[in-house]
Amino acid sequence: MIGCFKLRIMDIVLATRNKKKIEEIKRITEGMAISIFTLDDFPGCPEVEEDEDTFEANAIKKAAAVARYTGKPALADDSGLEVYALNGAPGILSSRYAGERAGDRENIEKLLYETSSIADERRGARFVCCIALASPDGSVKTFSGYVEGRIGTAPRGFNGFGYDPIFYSEGHSRTFAEMSDEEKDAISHRGRALRAIQQYLRGISEGKIDF
Ligand code: ITT
Q1: Residue whose CA is at the smallest distance from ligand 1 atom 8
Q2: CATH number, residue 194
């Protein structure tokens, strides 16, 4: 049939152990021509140490290791919050800001403490998300997304995860944790990085780009 083509569905393993990230990635990629696997489908997959200096290098390291182990293309997300008045902290240490075993609540408490003397006009921050897509043969592509905003002085809202209860994106008076999933996805760093990847994946699934 003229003008009609069949989309090739591509298998992708999500190289993350963060259940909330998995939820968001599945939600945002719904409708794309991909079939998602998680590390639960590959229980023997070794832990990857995140010891690189940048979001991009950590994302590449995670995606490449999982693609190599599983023999399937792998997608890793390395993300975090950068507070300008703290020279970019917590940054790549976002998930363990208050210590290796710290949870979201402890990380938020530490950040609120560290920013307690910072005036409103200096509470600027951004979320960063770097996504790496690696193939089992070793090739890797990266895609980034950012959302600018500011840090609040007390947690508000119960949706999302991580620092969502204290992050106000620019022009909004509700935190990410007070927004619906759809509202957050439309403006979030992760939503932006995944929409950047969408075009690329479409090219692969239509056979126009080799991966
Ligand atoms: P994986 O490495 O297994 O993917 P992780 O939670 O360790 O899981 P990261 O090293 O990328 O992932 O750390 C991301 C941290 O940044 C996350 O734990 C949150 O504290 C924060 N973060 C990232 N995206 C966020 C979002 O959309 N909302 C709130 N906090 C976020």
Answers
A1: 18
A2: 3.90.950.10
